[in-house]
Amino acid sequence: MEANVYDVVVVGGGAAGLSAALLLGRARRRVAVVDAGAPRNAPAAQMQGFLSRDGMPPADLLAAGRMEVVGYGVQLVEDQVVSIEPGFYVRLAGGAVLRARRILITTGVRDELPGIPGVGERWGRDLLHCPYCHGWEVRDHALGVLGTQPGSVQHAHLVRQWSDDVVFFVHTYDLTSSEREQLEARGIQIVRGKVSQLVVEADRLTGVQMADGRIIPRAAVFIRPRNVPHADGLLTGLGCEVDDAGFVVVDATGRTSAYGVWAAGNVVDPRAQVIASAGAANAAAIAINADLVQEDVERAVDDQNHAAGGVFTAALEARLTETVLGDRRHGL
After folding, report:
1. What are 253-299's pLDDT values in tens digits?
2. How far are the Cα atoms of 19, 49, 61, 139 from residue 52, in angstroms, in the given order?
3. The domain containing residue 139 runs over which residues?
4. How far apart are CA 113 and CA 92, in angstroms?
């Protein structure tokens, strides 16, 4: 392999990206992890549901992960990928270009939140999305669920598992009669009307104010945000198939429809918790290494035949031509 080519460039340095890098580094692959430094769970004080790491601050998990992967020779690059061009030339915002044999995308998703005063400031603190991540910490408190999009009522039923005092704020949700009946049957109070703002006192959520001035005391509010892929165009630019929601389509190992490109974590499944994202990336890393091994075998046979005086095979000639032309095109 050429000295300036990485076996794998991982785009995204969260739990998924670092998990893949750890396995690939231990497999003695040359790996670079490019991280823009904007993790989705940064606002949260703790990370829950990760066996042996339950309650750990997200930043501490990333710090520990970075230390581990560096020990296996993985290169961490603090930058943002702006494009991935044919031949897997990874162009960074800072101007550098990395070359790779394979690509793994672990860039996560973006949560679209309603434009209600207080929502952005309380996000990940006492305005929450995942009951499995935060429900235990607010158990038996006065909780609310904000209706904004399909699935909001199901979210309220889920939150009811952690408290007997749950209010469903209809807000902009089109509540059906059957949904109303179900909520009432489970003792979930329904509050109609639009929410105007979250009420915060002493850096703590204390209530939800309605447009008509009513204030409903609540200690925490849950919302099912709309999850959307980052508008970076990396996967679509590589020709990867996406579903109707814009999420990349992968097989059981995280392989996309584009040659040499894998994806794992929330960029594939926006509801996957940290431990699930890390596990999916681990599986992707195993598949990537196996794919590289197969290519290594084919290259070794081609090189051996050429050294013995044989002619270039079509695969070898194409590889050498692509390398030369690509390097010239990118000034390498």
Report:
1. 999 999 999 999 999 999 899 999 999 999 999 999 999 999 999 98
2. 15, 9, 11, 22
3. 114-224
4. 29
